Amino acid sequence: MLQKTVNVNGVEVMFRSSATIPRLYRLKFGRDIFKDLAKLEKSYKGKANEGAEFQIDDLEIFENVAYVMAYHADNSIPSNIDEWLDQFEMFSIYEILPEILELWGSNLQTDIESKKNFQKVAGR
Fold first, then answer.
1. How many domains does the chain have?
2. In angstroms, how far is the first alpha carbon of the chain from the final one?
3. Residue-range definition of the domain harbouring residue 11
């Protein structure tokens, strides 16, 4: 489990990533977070290089991922994503997405290392 506090337009928001995130995301939104984050990361890299805008579905994926990671860190936040988003005047995808992608990547790296260590211990 990894956590990171990010300033979102003057509001300190804790985000948390762990092996539970894919399940929480699937239960809440009925989607695969691995596919969604891969699409989002590809769009982000393309947009950063071209200076273009994100598509609406990219923004929705970003909001959903941010919400699930924030709720996983602090389940006292609203259980409705719209109520949660309402607390922010602006929610810059360009500022927050790199933080979320870094947190997610760190979590995946930790999972891979844990599996490698388990295989060594298990004699596989």
1. 1
2. 25
3. 2-96
